[in-house]
Amino acid sequence: MRFAKLQGSGNDFVVIDNRDGKVEEFLRSLNLDIKEFVKKVCAFHTGVGADGLILIENPENPENHFKWQFFNSDGSVAEMCGNGSRCAVRFAFDEGIVGKEVRFETLAGVIRAYVLDGGKRIKVQLTPPKDYREVSLSLDTQSIEGYFINTGVPHFVAVVNDLEKIDVIKLGRAIRFHPEFQPKGTNVNFIEREGDDAIRIRTYERGVEGETLACGTGATASAIVAYKKGIVSKKPVRVLTKGGEVLAIDFDNDFREVFLEGGVVRVFDGFLRRELFEC
Ligand SMILES: N[C@@H](CCC[C@H](N)C(=O)O)C(=O)O
């Protein structure tokens, strides 16, 4: 089965054109469920290795260009993914499925996107953020203050002073599974001010269950929190990711129109062999 691997600021995804339903056929022939399929493909060392997997499918509404199914590397379904959106749009553009202005269907709603620089940069308009609230959490050995906001998927954002010293896995996991956010859990972002228009970020991602090099909806959630709380005063907010890329987040004053922009690389194209799923 043909696939492409793309990455946006180091958040990497396997993307498959499933408009003809070939994935279901492949799964049936192997007697495999989609969760196992995703886990095997996304596994580092034994599979392709990726933070998630995206299926491009026919839209429900013909006014849109495609629908996607998005899976985290552990096989769980997520409502939305910012960097994955940018990769999906780049793939769809390369394959001639879309032009430079795109509308596609996700579980979080219809996402609009714009292809820039021949596909090397993609800008997506995320769904309006919701459920913003200040949160104070008691953990086993400490308490932590932060902000919850849903930018398509749930995010907790904590402002810290020494980002490099944060134990993102340990603290991120404790917050991700905290009763406050059950049953869905949350992604967890730690941010530090870098200037009037910039923050640095590290993210623990739900469904990857570890730190990723970047998270688009997390960068967006964090930029909005940073602006609301006066940590930055200018926009677009530049978000310096662990992957090294700077994501640009822009929004209007009432946070109804929110944009995420950054580079996308189509790393390689490949062919998944049955052997991977038979072992
Ligand atoms: N990496 C993504 C977010 C993917 C979904 C997330 N792990 C979840 O389950 O909520 C992004 O770029 O936004």
TrEMBL record:
GO terms (BP aspect): lysine biosynthetic process via diaminopimelate
Pfam families xrefs: DAP_epimerase
Reactions catalysed, as given in the entry: (2S,6S)-2,6-diaminopimelate = meso-2,6-diaminopimelate
Coiled-coil spans in chain: none
Statement: the UniProt record of this protein carries the keyword Signal: no
Keyword Isomerase in annotation: yes
Positions bearing the site annotation: Could be important to modulate the pK values of the two catalytic cysteine residues: 155, 205
Enzyme class: isomerase
Subcellular location: Cytoplasm
Keyword annotations: Amino-acid biosynthesis, Cytoplasm, Isomerase, Lysine biosynthesis
GO molecular function: diaminopimelate epimerase activity
E.C. number: 5.1.1.7
GO cellular component terms, semicolon-separated: cytosol
Matching PROSITE patterns: DAP_EPIMERASE
Main location: cytoplasm
Active site: 81, 81 (proton donor), 215 (proton acceptor)
Pathway stated in the Swiss-Prot or TrEMBL entry: Amino-acid biosynthesis; L-lysine biosynthesis via DAP pathway; DL-2,6-diaminopimelate from LL-2,6-diaminopimelate: step 1/1
Binding site for substrate: 11, 72, 82-83, 187, 205-206, 216-217
Assigned protein family: Belongs to the diaminopimelate epimerase family.
Complexes and interactors: Homodimer.
Function (record text): Catalyzes the stereoinversion of LL-2,6-diaminopimelate (L,L-DAP) to meso-diaminopimelate (meso-DAP), a precursor of L-lysine and an essential component of the bacterial peptidoglycan.
HAMAP family per record: DAP_epimerase
Protein's UniProt name: Diaminopimelate epimerase
Organism annotation: Thermocrinis ruber
